[in-house]
Amino acid sequence: MVKLTRIYTRAGDDGRTMLGTGARVPKDDLRVEAYGTVDEANAFLGSAVLACRKTLPEVTEALQSIQHDLFDVGADLCTPVQPNEEPGSRLRIIPDQTAALERLIDEHNAGLSPLTSFVLPGGTAESCALHLARTVIRRAERIVAALCQAEPDATNPETLRYLNRLSDLLFVLARVANDRGDSDVLWQPGKNRTPPGT
User: Fold this and answer.
1) Can you say how many angstroms the Cα of residue 190 is from the centroid of all Cα atoms in its chain?
2) In this predicted model, what pLDDT tens digit does every residue of 22-69 receive, in sequence order?
3) Is 155:90 a contact under the CB 8 Å cutoff?
C-alpha cells in the first residue's frame, strides 16, 4: 500500500528523480518521459470522465476502471524489468488487461456504422474530450515504443500493447459519444483547396 506523508521532499531539485528500483535518473530520461506522459494521459482521461458522467454512464464506468490500469502502466514503466525477475514480484501490465480493452472495443463498435472517411476530432463535447485523451495516449504510446527500442530487456512490451489498444478504444468511444456515429464530423480531403488556374 502506498502511504504519502510528505508532498514535497526537495529530492528532485537537482533535476533528477528516483525510479522504482531506487536508481536516480535525469527528469528528462526517456523512461521518465514515458511514465510521465502516461500520467498526463490519465489526467485527460479524468477530464473525459467528467464530460461523460451525466450522458454516458457505461463509458464513464469503463474510463474510471481504465484510470486504475494507467496507474499500473506508470508503475510498470517506472520500474525497469530486472534480469531474472520473478514473475509476479513486480506490478506489471498483463495480457488480460489488454484483452479487456479488446472486449470493450468489440462491444462498443458493434453498433457503429462503418466509416467512409477519417473522423475529425469534433462533434459533441463528450466526443471531443475522448479524442483529446486519445491523442495524449497516442503520444505516450510513441514514447513507450521508443523506450522499448532503447531498453528492450528492461521494458515490459505489454505496456505498449495496452496503450495501443486503449487509443483504439477511445476512438470507438468518441464515436459512441457522437450519437453512435451519427454526429461524427468526417474529413473531406482537399475541402479548402482552390484548384490551380481558378
Assistant:
1) 31
2) 678 667 799 999 999 999 999 999 999 999 999 999 999 999 999 999
3) no
- Cell numbers for 116: 467512409
CA distance 74 to 84: 21
Measured distance CA(181)–CA(114) in Å, rounded: 9
pLDDT at 84: 87
Global pTM reads: 0.89
Domain extent listing, the chain = 26-79+93-104+118-186
In the block, residue with C-alpha cell 533535476: 15
N-terminal to C-terminal alpha carbon distance within the chain: 68
Q: Which residues, including other chains, have CB under 8 Å from residue 51's CB and lie 6 or more apart?
A: 125, 126, 128, 129, 130
| CATH H-level superfamily of 26-79+93-104+118-186 | Cobalamin adenosyltransferase-like (1.20.1200.10)
Q: What would the pLDDT profile of 85-106 be if each residue is shown by its tens digit?
A: 888 889 999 999 999 999 999 9
Give the three cell numbers for residue 40.
498526463
* Nearest one of 167, 144, 156 to 93, comparing CA atoms: 156
